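SEVERITY: medium
COMPONENT: batch folding queue
REPORTER: lab tech (J.R.)

DESCRIPTION
The queue accepted two submissions in a row. Attaching both inputs and their returned structure tokens so the on-call engineer can compare them side by side.

ATTACHMENT 1
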Amino acid sequence: MKSIAGLWIDHRKALIVVATDKGEETRLIVSKVEKQLRRSGDSPLKGSYESQTVPADDSRERKRSGDLGIFYEAVVASIRNSDSVLILGPGEAKVELKKRLTRDKLGDHIVQVEAADKMTDRQIAAKIRKYFQ
């Protein structure tokens, strides 16, 4: 039984379409990564106490990296048993996922990594079906 998978990914979510001989299944994985790292509390009124109220940049970056790691692990777990994987997405997440798959010895399952803007769930599923036909 051959299994194919295609996914659209950015740092906020991944929509995964897995097709086997038994049918097609769609999964949505949402990450807990902050949209954009910002220093909260940047105000002239806060004065010299700002450093005590705002977390350090390196601790926020470590949290973001940890959240991304958890997100990518969930995505990898969803496509681990697939024979062929098509990766779509608008930003760096698709390249980061490719590196993660290569590190986990699943890089040879990747058939293509392709840039794609925002798409609806149906458009993603249709593009993946068309690619593998």
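ATTACHMENT 2
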Amino acid sequence: MTEHPPPSTAILLINLGGPDSLDSVRPFLCNLFSDPDIMGQNRLLLKPLAWFISRKRAPAVQKYYTLIGGKSPLLELTRQQGNALNKVLAPHGHFKVFVAMRYWHPMIEEVVEEILTSPVRQVIVLPLYPHYSATTTGSSLNEFNRVWQRLGADKIKVNPIREWYDHPAYIRAMCDTIQQCVDSHKLDIESARIVFSAHGIPLKFIEQGDPYAQQIERSVELIAGELGLRENYHLCYQSRVGPLKWLGPSTEELLKELAAKKVRDVVLVPISFVSDHVETLYEMDILYREKAVEYGISNFYRAPALNNSPFLIEALKELVLQQYSGGI
């Protein structure tokens, strides 16, 4: 008699994704700029506009990826997080972690099809963005829902996790990476400037009620409180593209302002990113470092992204178990 494996709870980790070669930069960008949650709902204009923007931007973006090894490390890092999460969940039940990317392979549809080939009683969808925005978590959940409905898996319970910006283990993880950076460079955490840099979004989303900026600010407050920071921390936003007004101040503007005040010790902290990718490895480590030196900041450091931080994995585990215990 053949024994069938017991039904499991599938954990679907979703991240942005990134090109796996220089040749995939343009199609990756085309997928990104084809997203109606970012670019608007005009279906007639969406595809030709995405084609035009990706064609125009691809050469510059390829140069960025060339400087960080020719591809994005995001999938590999997310799979490492998934493997670590699998291990810490093992004593708590039958779980299986899957990894999908929003704009590059493995795409959400590919992974959902894989999930449905095994006995599953529940799917917990966990976008790896601590802070909710329609442009990140919202887009990922919308795409998952479109795929889920198309594949007709209505009998399986789905529990999405929308935000976890104030989760204690996430806050501990952020405090830990900052403290390690400060200690390794023998800085005084009370006098060095701690600069939190978040991925920006256009102001129009905030005006439409997007809670992203408010949640970023709350995370920064909680981290600053835990570390005992006072007047020596700042919040800024990076990665602006296009002509729209974006959240500010920009990271470059803030660095210039600090340099004008004769600040010499700066620790740049990636606040909205849980894994290294082009925004940390190129923008922070190369572009903003060059700008800081140009402006006169002599000691510029970047706190590591969380990547495989035990505190991050603990946060993901607690988020899953909370949904698991309350969702069956």
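NOTES FROM REPORTER
The chain is about 50% helix and 15% strand.
No errors were logged for either attachment.
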